[in-house]
Structure formats: C-alpha cells, structure tokens
Amino acid sequence: MSIPPGKYDIKLRRRSDWSKTFILKSAGSAVNLNGYSVLCQFWTKDRTKKHVDVTTSISDAANGEITLSLTDTQTALLPDTSYYDVRLTTGTTSNYWLYGKVTAEEGYSA
Q1: Alpha carbons 27 and 17: distance in angstroms, whole number
Q2: In 3-state terms, what secondary structure has residue 26?
Q3: Rounded Cα distance, 66 and 40, in Å
Q4: What's the pLDDT band for 1 if we cut at 50, 70, 90?
Q5: Is the sign of the CA dihedral 108, 71, 55, 61 positive or negative?
Q6: What share of the chain is helix, strand, coil (3-state, %, to 5)?
Q7: pLDDT tens profile 69-106
Q8: Which residue in 41, 39, 45 sits closest to 81, CA to CA?
Q9: How many Cα atoms are found within 13 Å in the side-chain-facing hemisphere of 6?
Q10: Are the C-beta atoms of 72 and 94 separated by less than 8 Å?
Q11: Angle at the Cα of 91 (from 90 to 93), degrees rounded to 5?
C-alpha cells in the first residue's frame, strides 16, 4: 500500500528515556500490520551521518500501532536537530509512513 508519508516533528530531552506510540491509518482506518517489520533511524538532513537506530516495535498489529523508543544513553548523544522517517516492509514491498524533524533539548536536572 503506497501512500504519502505523514509528517510528525519530534521534540525530546537529552539524557532521558523517550518513547512514542503511533497508530498508522489509511483512509481513516487502522492498517493491519500483521506480517510487517518497521525501521526508524535519526540522520543529518543531508543523510551523511546516522545518529541512532531507533528501537521499534509493532505493539498492536491488528490496530496499526507501532512504538518508537530511545534510551537515556541514546538521547544524550543526539545533536540539536536531526531527521527521521519510519519505513514498513512486508515481503518485498517497503513504504515510508512517517517522517519529520527531531529537536533534542538539553535537560537542566543532572
């Protein structure tokens, strides 16, 4: 199923665990993700440096739910701005479903 990817900008704090759950929909209905795998990475805008491989899971396949997460160690190393997308694959078919900018802000509590 090929659709234009949705845009969602992420804002997170460095040195803090981060997790976000998304429900993927097509024509207003949740997409059944049984048989799919999901991939997400954070890169520089020109895609010359990968910052991190995001931990991904299909948390509720029947209802189109995926979860992206990073540990506090991973967020500590992020630059101020990076970019990401989410690619789902089933069999030999891959499509991008989501993309956006990632803003990492410094936390104040040590």
Answers
A1: 33
A2: strand
A3: 11
A4: low
A5: negative
A6: 5, 55, 35
A7: 999 999 999 999 999 999 999 999 999 999 999 999 99
A8: 45
A9: 10
A10: no
A11: 65
Token readout for 69 is 């997460």
User: pLDDT grade, residue 108 (50/70/90)?
Assistant: confident
Q: How confident is the model at residue 2 (pLDDT cuts 50, 70, 90)?
A: low
Asked if 61 and 41 touch (Cβ cutoff 8 Å), the reply is: no
Distance CA 54, CA 70 (A): 6
Asked whether the beta carbons of 75 and 13 are under 8 A apart, the reply is yes
The Cα 26–Cα 31 span in angstroms is 6
Q: What pairing do the DSSP bridges indicate for beta strands 6-7 and 10-13?
A: unpaired
